[in-house]
Design goal:
Elements: H1 15-30, H2 37-44, H3 48-54, H4 64-79, H5 85-99, H6 107-110, H7 112-115, H8 119-144, H9 151-173, H10 181-197
Helix pairs in contact: 1-2, 4-5, 4-8, 5-9, 5-10, 8-9, 9-10
Length: 199
């Protein structure tokens, strides 16, 4: 269902986005470690229970967009009709990048040091990277008849996701002058996909 539109034509922000923005403000003001779920809920003007309707832990607010991309990846992979598993993965990752809201920059990456996130950032990233890797290797395995844990599905997943992650990091670091995310992801994936597809 579409988000309700504001009078100016912009979609109304979801409660999850309001909570994520409140958390980012607090992490910048007082640090990640000194910010509690109660602080975030109060800043957003909602209850603690509402927070847990959207997130299972405080660290989850750092990854609102990435979690959405991870959840959409299996469907994007299955939508591809390209006979090449590699090209299908490329197509799905480009679609996810194209759908990313350019105004939603993951401040956890851009401001990790200022926010004092540290090891929690590394742990929460690892969980999400593993989920993406599992989705891609399972898809490649189904397309090729290989077991998802076999070398080829693992290689495709690692190489393609590694290139996309590198592009994402550069996009974040480019600041206000950044171009659309899909341009970065496309530039990173093109040589990798060509090399893998030409094996």
């Amino acid at each position: 269902m579409d988000e309700p539109m504001r009078r100016g034509g912009r979609p109304r922000r979801s409660s999850a986005e309001v909570l994520a923005d409140a958390a980012a403000e607090l992490f910048l003001e007082q640090g990640y470690g000194r910010t509690t779920v109660d602080h975030i809920a109060a800043r957003a003007g909602v209850s603690r229970a509402t927070f847990f309707n959207y997130f299972t832990a405080k660290s989850d607010v750092l990854w609102l967009e990435l979690d959405a991309a991870v959840s959409s990846l299996p469907a994007l992979l299955e939508e591809s009709r390209d006979p090449s598993a590699v090209r299908a993965v490329e197509e799905a990752l480009l679609a996810a990048a194209r759908a990313h809201d350019p105004e939603r920059v993951p401040w956890a990456i851009a401001q990790a040091e200022v926010m004092g996130i540290g090891p929690e950032l590394v742990a929460s990233v690892a969980t999400r990277v593993t989920a993406q890797h599992t989705a891609v290797s399972a898809f490649v395995g189904r397309r090729t008849g290989d077991h998802p844990a076999a070398l080829w599905p693992q290689t495709v997943a690692g190489a393609m996701l590694g290139a996309a992650a590198a592009a994402f990091g550069v996009w974040v670091a480019d600041g206000v002058g950044r171009r659309p995310l899909v341009e970065y992801v496309g530039a990173a994936l093109t040589p990798v996909a060509a090399g893998l597809d030409g094996r």
